[in-house]
Write a structure and sequence with these properties.
The complex is a heterodimer.
Chain A lengths: L1 H37 E2 L2 E2 L3 H7 L1 H34 L7 H11 L2 H12 L4 H5 L13 H27 L2 H8 L4 H30 L2 H10 L4 H10 L5 H28 L22 H27 L16 H6 L5 H31 L5 H15 L2 H12 L12 H25 L4 H8 L4 H28 L4 H6 L7 H10 L3 H32 L1
Antiparallel strand pairs in A: 1-2
Chain B lengths: L3 H30 L2 H8 L14 E6 L3 H15 L2 E6 L2 H10 L8 E3 L3 H9 L27 E13 L22 E3 L6 H14 L4 H9 L3 E2 L3 H10 L4 E6 H10 L3 E4 L7 E8 L6 H11 L2 H9 L3 E2 L22 H18 L2
Classes of the chains: A mainly alpha, B alpha/beta.
Pfam families (chain B): SBP_bac_6
InterPro entries (chain B): Ferric-bd
Protein name (chain B): ABC transporter substrate-binding protein
Chain lengths: 558, 357
């Protein structure tokens, strides 16, 4: 019994330490932002943020952001839900390589993906060059609907992964039980699958919403062209163009933050009410209900269409642009060149250094993020107590604050005159920024895996005499490793293409692949930038393939 | 009865330890690598530099404008002085934003901006370090630089109408031509909040024409002229043929694309245009004052001015001619009033942005 009470002490200390680390890493920079938003011209003006909001124009922008978020949730649901179902319950589930392919749209930096779509659809664009007759339909694309489509095609893999994970954990037996008792498909979906899926979907939809209204790449490339303004593009305007107005930007950011916190609260209520223990000791078995061969071709067509739109079109544009001698000439065989790739991949060149920087920085950041994120997720547990819920809230904050605002907060903190740790303008600052920005991924993945483990498994381990360390190593760890791996992969992929933070925080003379691409666009070297996009996305894909194949080998041995 | 919590507790301890260790290691690792550049630089010191500076042979430069030119200038400067230059490259807006973010702990020594009013702003905020003894400063175009030596415009670009030669057979000759119905929806103008030179053109035009100058921009708005990002983003659709023309295009970008073989060219309208000087300034907060002064001297040297001219920009010194492009005396100019432009920048930007919403 003495042992048990000392363990409880350790648990309390662990959660307090976790809160402390989160506070220093995430909350203090955000407080700096808040201070900036109420201190105008060196004096305290508590009403300043409200005055900013009272501006009718800005209120319209806020509504625009929210409407976009809602539409993108609808768009991603239409794409991800059927896909998750197909990839769990049909023969296509055997094509595990498709999971990697479906990550490609998400790994494509949004501003590059949008650029690809613009190059494809614009007047005299690639579509018109390929099929001149279709020139008349392209103006319809440059509308709000087009923007929702681009963003949904970018974000759906995220929701897909969450939904597929949840569907897999539901397993076949519950649904089979329903079928045995005579329930038709729609009834089974409504009464068995949907309720069990709701918490994962709620979590996914919330993150999609937040990612949409915090997204900056698509609004700044595509939204600008159609004149659709959102909060992030306004914030970015106040932060990056003269005259700089951190006060207005931070006021807008606090509004965005409040909106996101409300959604977070709604979601956590939803999730607490509808979370079930699904991983029991009996293992998971695929359902045998839906593998009828005659429907397979419909699934194949659906998946093929999705791949065509989410990868085919943007990558056609990106690759075409990266191999063009003269962009003014357009698609023609005699206009084809690989010179940009040669220039890019010359050892020791700026581009090569940028690429290496990206890889090494993201490796470091994703590893640290997984260690921290797993710790936080375990401390959070099932977020029953207030302190657990606070930890949960803090660890998810970076996902609810637009990246650019978080980054400004970090700069304000780490570059302030009283800061004793000289982290600013070093690689360490970049790693710290990436870790903070992408921590929520690991927390989410591990939490979702952990939340569905039935406590009886730990009790079983305990009953058979397992020491806490042993139970951790042999029971819990194997069950959360897939979540950790998913978090690591996500963090690595996204960190290696991170733009907004890198633009503001990289030390002078240091570039990553993303800032290199951005600089090439600014310098008029679009082809060189697109070649870098192909290379860096290709590189992360290869890494993921290797990891995935190692992962499946592990499964075979087990 | 042992409850679940006791089991969880055991391993959280281990995780916490690992984490603390990992964080600590990262921080130490980062702290130590920042000194290495100084060492490298001092090793390569050569005779032309005063020996008092040996301890810190570096310079931090924030530069707007063509990266190729900036790299060549840094190369030349490093070869001549042995001072290692660290550069942040971005648009004028991004550089000013970065400086604002770093206000309490500035690292930048020298800035090169693409807009004169921004440099005037830095001066009036008391952020610049005057360097009246700069070599060759007397040969600079006096209208573009500060007489007290707060900033030096070492290069400039002229603004014109860039057009796609495949789509436009008879190029326009005046700004008014862009309001013709045949060009409806075919024209881009760079965003004055992102492009210092676009703002220079708009304020410059208004300072010459007075309040009635707004009618031109109202007509632009009616003709569906699109406000499109910074300069390169405005020019790019013209190169690919999605748009036909850019109003207030930066000329050197157009010359560069044209030299590559892209179907673009530029004209300077007959009623005159604005030259957008690109000022360089030493920041008062500099920790490498001697290095910064040496860099300004280099920017004004024959060697650097030749590099400027090769990059299709107008040299800042009046005694050096530009090659492969229109020289200053061949470009019709508006009577731009720079102090008016500096004072009214914000107000004009607001009005312009609302007009095109």
């Amino acid at each position: 019994m003495r042992n048990s009470s000392s363990l409880r002490h350790i648990r309390v200390w662990s959660i307090v330490l976790a809160l402390l680390v989160l506070t220093i890493m995430i909350v203090v920079p955000l407080i700096e932002i808040f201070i900036q938003s109420v201190y105008r011209d060196g004096e305290l003006q508590l009403a300043a943020p409200f005055r900013t909001l009272a501006d009718a124009e800005l209120f319209k922008v806020l509504l625009g952001s929210i409407w976009l978020g809602i539409c993108v949730i609808a768009g991603t649901t239409v794409l991800a839900l059927p896909l998750a179902w197909v990839m769990v319950n049909t023969r296509l589930a055997r094509w595990r390589w498709l999971d990697i392919v479906f990550l490609i749209p998400f790994m494509t930096p949004p501003y590059i993906g949008s650029m690809g779509w613009i190059l494809f659809m614009q007047k005299n664009g690639y579509l018109e060059q390929l099929v001149p007759g279709l020139g008349s339909i392209t103006p319809a694309f440059f509308t709000f609907g087009g923007m929702v489509m681009i963003m949904s095609l970018h974000l759906f893999p995220f929701l897909y992964l969450l939904l597929r994970g949840a569907l897999e954990r539901i397993g076949g037996s519950l649904e089979e039980a329903g079928a045995v008792l005579g329930a038709p498909f729609m009834y089974r979906f409504r009464r068995i699958i949907a309720p069990l899926l709701l918490s994962a979907y709620g979590m996914g939809a919330m993150l999609i919403f937040v990612k949409t209204i915090a997204e900056f790449g698509t609004p700044v490339t595509f939204g600008k062209r159609i004149g659709y303004e959102v909060m992030t593009s306004e914030i970015h305007k106040y932060i990056s163009s003269w005259p700089i107005d951190f006060g207005k930007a931070t006021s807008l950011a606090s509004v965005l933050l409040t909106a996101c916190l409300l959604i977070w609260y709604a979601q956590s209520v939803l999730s607490r009410r509808f979370t079930y223990s699904l991983v029991g000791g009996k293992g998971i078995r695929r359902s045998s209900l839906h593998s009828q061969g005659r429907w397979t071709w419909i699934y194949v067509i659906f998946v093929a269409l999705l791949l065509l739109l989410s990868i085919g079109v943007p990558y056609f544009s990106i690759i075409a642009a990266s191999t063009m001698k003269l962009r003014g000439v357009g698609l023609a065989w005699n206009n084809f060149t690989l010179d940009y790739y040669k220039e890019l991949l010359t050892w020791g060149s700026t581009s090569m250094r940028a690429l290496m920087n990206s890889v090494l920085l993201s490796l470091a950041a994703s590893t640290i993020a997984v260690i921290l994120g797993t710790w936080f997720a375990i401390v959070i547990g099932r977020s029953r107590t207030r302190i657990e819920r606070t930890t949960d809230l803090f660890s998810l904050l970076p996902n609810t604050v637009p990246g650019i605002v978080m980054v400004v907060g970090l700069i304000l903190l780490w570059n302030s005159p009283w800061m004793p740790i000289p982290l600013y303008n070093t690689y360490g600052m970049v790693i710290l920024t990436y870790v903070i920005l992408f921590l929520p991924y690991t927390v989410q993945y591990v939490k979702s895996a952990y939340g569905q483990i039935d406590p009886s498994l730990f009790q079983a381990g305990q009953v058979f005499g397992g020491k806490p360390q042993y139970v951790f190593r042999r029971v819990l760890l194997p069950l959360i490793v897939p979540g950790m791996l998913a978090g690591w992969m996500m963090t690595f992929t996204i960190a290696s293409r991170e733009l907004v933070g890198s633009l503001l925080i990289l030390p002078p003379s240091v570039q990553t692949s993303a800032t290199y691409i951005f600089a090439q666009f600014e310098q008029g070297q679009v082809s060189l930038g697109m070649a870098m996009a192909v290379v860096s996305v290709g590189l992360t894909t290869v890494m993921l393939v290797i990891i995935e194949s190692l992962g499946s080998k592990r499964k075979w041995n087990a | 009865m042992v409850n679940l919590n006791t089991i969880k507790n055991g391993w959280t301890k281990g995780t916490a330890l690992t984490l603390t260790l990992a964080l600590g290691l990262t921080l130490t690792a980062c702290g130590s690598n920042s000194n290495s550049t100084a060492k490298e630089a001092s090793a390569s010191t050569n005779n032309s530099v005063p020996s008092t500076q040996v301890a810190d042979q570096k310079l931090v430069l924030y530069s707007a404008g063509p990266e190729g030119l900036a790299n060549k200038i840094i190369e030349g400067f490093e070869a001549q002085t042995g001072i290692k230059v660290e550069m942040f490259q971005g648009t004028t807006g991004k550089i000013l934003a970065r400086m604002e973010a770093e206000k309490s702990n500035p690292v930048v020594d020298v800035v090169i901006l693409a807009s004169l009013p921004s440099a005037q702003g830095l001066k009036s905020d008391g952020l610049t370090l005057p360097y009246p003894d700069a070599k060759n400063a007397d040969k600079l175009n006096p209208e573009w630089s500060d007489s007290e030596g707060n900033y030096f415009s070492t290069s400039a670009s002229a603004l014109g109408i860039a057009y796609n030669t495949k789509l436009v057979s008879t190029p326009p000759t005046s700004w008014e031509d862009l309001t013709k119905p045949e060009y409806k929806g075919q024209i881009n103008i760079p965003d004055p909040t992102l492009s210092g030179s676009a703002l220079d053109f708009i304020t410059g035009y208004l300072s010459d024409k007075g309040e009635s100058g707004w009618s031109l921009f109202e007509e632009f708005s009616k003709n569906d002229v699109a406000v499109a990002g910074a300069n390169q983003e405005a020019l790019d659709p013209v190169i690919t043929g999605a748009k036909s023309m850019v109003a207030a295009a930066v000329d050197y970008m157009t010359y560069k694309a044209k030299a590559k073989g892209e179907p673009v060219d530029i004209v300077y309208p007959k009623e005159g245009t604005v030259i957008s000087p690109r000022p360089a300034a030493i920041m008062k907060s500099t920790q490498h004052e001697e290095n910064a002064k040496a860099f300004i001297d280099y920017l004004l040297s024959d060697e650097a001015q030749k590099l400027v001219s090769d990059a299709a920009l107008l040299p800042g010194r009046t005694d050096i001619k530009a090659e492969n492009r229109a020289n200053l005396d061949e470009i019709p100019l508006l009577k731009a009033d720079w102090s008016w432009m500096n004072e009214h920048g914000t107000e004009v930007t607001d009005k312009f942005t609302k007009l095109f919403k």
